[in-house]
Each structure stands twice: as C-alpha cells, then as structure tokens.
Write a structure and sequence with these properties.
With 478 residues, the chain is of the alpha/beta class. The protein folds into 3 domains: 14-155 and 280-343, FAD/NAD(P)-binding domain (3-Layer(bba) Sandwich), CATH 3.50.50.60; 163-277, FAD/NAD(P)-binding domain (3-Layer(bba) Sandwich), CATH 3.50.50; 356-467, 2-Layer Sandwich (Enolase-like, domain 1), CATH 3.30.390.30. Helices cover 30% and strands 23% of the residues. Strands 1, 2, 3, 4, 5, 6 and 16 form a 7-stranded mixed beta sheet that branches. It has a 5-stranded antiparallel beta sheet with strand order 17-18-21-20-19.
Amino acid sequence: MSDCCSIENDPAEMADLLIIGGGSAAFAAAIETSTLAGTAVIFNEGLPVGGTCVNVGCVPSKAMIRAAEAVHRANVQRFEGVATSARVSDFSAVTRHTTALVEELRDQKYLNIIGGDENIRLVEARARLIEPGVVEADGARYRGRNVLIATGARPALPAIPGLDTVPVLTNEDLYQLEVLPEHLIVIGGRYIALENAQMMARLGSRVTVLQRSARILPTEAPEITDALTDLLRAEGIEVLTGTAIQSVAPGPAGVSVQVLVDGEPTQIQGTHLFMATGRHGNTEDLGLETLGIATDGSGYLNTGPDLRTSVPTVLGAGDVLGDNQFVYTAAYEGKLAAQNAFRGGSARADYSVLPWVVFTDPQVAGVGLDEQQAAAAGIAVDVSTIGLDMVPRAIAARDTRGFITLIRNRSTDVLVGARILAPEGSELLMEVALAIRHRVTVDSLKSMFHPYLTMSEGIKLAAISFDKSVGKLSCCAA
C-alpha cells in the first residue's frame, strides 16, 4: 500500500467519502469533496491512476490519431502545385512518444492535482465493501460516511470459438505495440473499432473491419454511416458488414478468422486481431452482493438518477454505470455524486444536451435528437442538411467531405438536435449544444455574425437553409 498525501494512515478515521476506483469520476469526486471541506480516500488497483481515458483511451488514441493524420495529409495533397509525402519511419517511436504523453498527463492532471491536498488520500490497493460505510484494502479497514463505486469498465470479449488460441489486442494494449501490424483484422464497427481502424491504416497497416450489423455505427442514420463507409473504403480500408464470426484460429500470418459475410463463408487471414466488441463493468469482487447491490448482465452498476444504489450511502459514477461512457460525463457524475453524498442531496444527472464525437476523419459529431428520435418523442420537426460543398471554408480548404444536419422543433423554431459529418466536426458542436440548452431559436442563429471563411459559418448556413436555398446567397450568408 502506498499513499501520496499527508493524511495519517489511520484506518479508524472516518472519511466523508471512500472512493473505489482511480479514474476521472473518482478524482472529480475527491476534488469536489475536498472543495466542500470534506475528506476523501481513493483506492486504485488495475490500470494506473487516471483510469481508461488517460492511460488506454482518449489520450493515447487521439495522440496517435493525430500522428496518423499527419501522415495521411502529407500523402493526400489537395492543392495543385504542392508536393508532399510522408511515411512512418519508426513505429515504435510513435508509440513511445504516445506513452510519454500519457505519463506526463497522468502526473499533471491526476497525481499532482491531489498531491498537495491534505483532504485527499490515495491508497494503491484493491478495495471491497465489507458493510455499508466500511471498505477493506490491503488488510486494513476504512470507514466512510459514504462510498462511491467508480471502477470503470473494460473491453468485453465475446465467446468466439478459438479466440483463446491467438493473441488478442484491445484498446488496453494497441497503443503499446512496438511493431506496426502488417494486416490488422478489426472485429467491431462502432467508435472504438473505427477510430483505431482508420488510425492504423493511415500509419501503414492493411486493415479489415468486420461488423456484425448491416451498417457501421448502426444507431446512427444511414446517410451518415453510408457516407463514412464510402470514405473509409476510399482510403483502402476493407469494411465488411453483415458478418457473423464463426471461429478464430492461428493462421499462416498470425491469425485466421472464419466468418460468414452475408451468409457466405469466408476466411480472412491477418497478422493481428483487434477486438472492439463492447465493454463490461468492473464490479467483480467488490462485495456488492454482500450489501444486496445489483448489477446488470454486463456488470454495470444499477443506480437511480441521483447516482445512489439500493444502499443510499453507496453511490456510483463513471463508466461502471454503463451509459454515456465519456470522460466528461464520468467527471460530471463524480462531482454530482460527491455533492449528493456530502450534502445528503438527491440532485439528478441531466443528459438532455449531451454532445458526443466519433474521432474518425471526417468526424461524426452529434448532440440532442436525430430525426427518428424526435419522431419517437412525438416532436414534429424540420430538418436542414447542407453539404460541406456549400461552406466557403471547406471549399477553400479543398476538403468538402461531409455535411451538417440541424433538426428544429417545427412549432417553436428551437433546435432539438444536430448531426455533423465533417473534418473537425466536433468543433462545431458547442454552438448547437448551447442553442439547444438555452432555447435559442433558429431565427436568432441566422441573425448572429459568423466570421466568413470559418467552419462555424456552416451552422449559420444550415440554419438559413431551413427556409432558403443557400445556393442563392452571395458570400457571408447574409
């Protein structure tokens, strides 16, 4: 057991919040508890402090996606008279550079943040509940007025015959590879699968994506998924949908996957296998069953909207809840859980305006309802879609891949959602998110100044196109 902070190691001391887990939800909860003049003890075991995001998720993936993008942009020159090229000269240097960034941010944004806080203590040991308000870790018992379960989630591997006979990569080890895979087979077709498939293809791997459903990103509208599929295939990525994995076995190059593609048996040979087939909550051996706290079939913790479990002094936050597995929602939940625990409150988590991004290129970004969700909610809507070939900034950049779709409530003129497929589409989201949250009308958006030759002008153009063809406008979207 080790601790980084100055509170004496006194297991009999009553803390305000005992936190099992060491990721963003845990640290947000601890910091909020300290802000409220309370004391918190964090118990971390498994991934290093920082959890999924900083160690094996957001940080390393986005760093390597940018590296891959640098190679791709140099090799796909969009401007006449400009000649550039690039290659990965040392793949292990790319991953070492990424690891160094992970270690730097782990120190800066986690360990250093609590290092000088006398109200927060870190115990590097596995913890489990013994009874309400009592946690055991490394042979010692700790008492707390409340307990927060923030143990996160891990990759879930399906029961595929032969999967245990070959090496399997997940997001927990892909970014530490020393050698670039020659042919990477990706099983899965949602955001983790697609982000990493494109990243590895741009770094030089041959990539085959096997997706069970008829479309990648199957919860999104076909116009998004079909367009993204075409763009990925144009980069040389083999995308096979409607597949059923029959078995996996060692192959001549490394791995052999027997798969049905639209019912036809096919064998795919590759050097490496990357699994992105969902997540599983980390709730095993926490003592939850001792207290009668339930989890679902995927190991996710059951809580109410106030983040309390069936035992009111035990709360949950972050990926262990199963929904909205983003670092920013985990931090939000950790802070909210700490406030409810410390104050005895029942504030409810609110996800009504939740922006999200798939970091492919172009990015898929969304907030609020899409057209089908609005219809299911009984909201009559109008939909406006403009291609990026109508956005001057995209035209000047010679990159018009994608479109912007806005959805408004027909009776109130207020936006209810947006879906964007665009390079850096994520940077367009917050204007829409704020408009939805504060009920800014489309008419107001149209009247706002948007600098000419910015991508944000595309939001204004999409707003205008509810009622007018932007093809008939002069410049500056007047």
